Amino acid sequence: MKWKRLLLLGALCACMGPVETAAKDAGQGIDSGSFGVFVNGHRVATETFTIKQGTGGTSTVDSQVKQEGSDSPGQNSQLQMSAGGDLIHYEWHDGASKAQLVVAPNDQFLLERITTTPGEKVAEHPFLMPLSTMVLDNNFFVQRELLAWRYLGSTCKQDSGRTQCPLTPAEFGVIVPQERSSMRVSLQLVGKEKVKIGSTDRDLLRVNLKDDSGEWAMWLDDQNMFKLVRILVASNNTEVLRD
Q1: Confidence (pLDDT) at 233
Q2: Cα–Cα distance measured from residue 142 to residue 132, given in angstroms and rounded to the nearest whole number
Q3: What is the C-alpha R_g of the chain?
């Protein structure tokens, strides 16, 4: 059965059979592109990202966020996950301040090491969270795509070409390394909606994400490998659109 045949990105997305062929044809590329970040209708930043699957199913997600009109090198991150969905390594750098952090397994839990100024002593922050915990760091929207894939792959099913999920929300534990915090988030399928993207009306799959900051509406293209197309955070007039 195609829906459950493929567990890409460490069981993040068991959503769609065609991904396997696409990944091989593209040299193990799963998704790549950029998201424009808009606040009150004005573009304020761009996130450029790639998601790749390596030998043995290990996945690597690279992302860079740059502010519009700024000469700063911006922020970049790299997330590595095992074929089983466990965190192998997460690293974040701020090109302006040179601050950096690394999260990696420490026995059965996770340990964060932070350097705010080059040359200073490294600070440590433990997360008493399992290795399967998702990273949901500040400013990196591709990580929301990964979380949506995990929700669809672990909770939902395909029936006659339709995505069906339980009526009750599914909860996941996540860490926010830049804030040195962890939290529980919930995801729930709303269903297909007609959404205007640019000048085109598109039928997209909506999933709502709730976390400590509020509610995020996410729209994914279930006809194109469930790629994330749009995010709307109505509470602060923020919209994220795939370029």
Answers
A1: 96
A2: 18
A3: 18
How many CA within 13 A on the CB side of residue 167? 0
14: burial class by Cβ within 10 Å (0-12, 13-18, 19+)? buried
In this predicted model, what pLDDT tens digit does every residue of 156-173 receive, in sequence order?
988 887 889 999 999 999
- Structure-token match 């519009």, residue found: 68
Query: What is the 3-class SS of 38-78, one letter each residue?
Result: EECCEEEEEEEEEEEECHHHCEEEEEEEEECCCCCCCEEEE
**Residue 13: predicted pLDDT:** 43
Question: Which run of H or of E encompasses 143?
Answer: helix 142-155
Tokens 């993040």 -> residue? 12
The model's pTM = 0.89
Q: How many CA atoms lie within 13 A of 166 on its CB side?
A: 10
Report the SS3 class of residue 26: coil
Q: Which residues of the chain have pLDDT under 50?
A: 1-27
